[in-house]
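Protocol step 4 of 5: obtain the predicted structure for the target chain.
Materials: sequence only (see below). No template structures provided, no constraints applied. The aim of this step is simply to have a reference model before the mutagenesis design in step 5. Sequence pasted as it appears in the construct record:
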Amino acid sequence: MQTDGFHSRPGESGNVLFFILLGVVLIGLVTAAIRSGGGEGANIDREQAIIAASQVREFAALAEGGVIQILQNGISESDIRFAHPDAPSDYGSISSTPARQLFDRSGGGVEYRKPPAGANDGSRWEFYGKSSLPQVGSASRGDLIAVLPAVAAGVCERLNAMNGLDPATQPEDPGTCLNAGSAGRFKDGVLYEDSSPNTADDTTFSIKPALEACVECADGKFYFYHVLIAR
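Step 4 output (structure tokens):
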């Protein structure tokens, strides 16, 4: 008499093979997920850099629009001011002739913003008239620019990419540096430099005129600038 206890029923061998193959596939997927674990963080970092760069450019564009508004109201370019309670005190008081203030409703009507998180080391926006940027206006006159100091390298890279600059060439300003420091802030008594303005290295800019870019200075730090008035 035969018993079925020692013989496979039809289809059982096929089912076993299926489950073995399924196990191999699942192990492969788990292994791949473990190996790519660092990639997810890198993607998040890239996304954060893109967001920060976009916010930086947005504020710079708003500042330029506010400057245009002040000029259209009949204020001289030398009388434009950048005072705000959260800005460095060198820029003066926002209550002083509001019509010429970028961050007052009576003037440029621009909302003052601190740099977005992760965009730089926390330094506030600066406004200078000491540099002549590549093929912007006259080479012998300083342009009015907004500057964000100490920009994070990844954000700097994204800023330049958004402006179509060649990623293989980092724009440089090896001279005085467009970040003129506290002594060069655009304010009463310290305005444009028209005798010997600072100039960036024209050869390092793949697109000109360079109305906006993130440059590397001799201190090894990155600085983003946006031209508010070309002169």
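Step 4 remarks: The longest strand covers residues 143-151. The radius of gyration is 28 Å.
Proceed to step 5.
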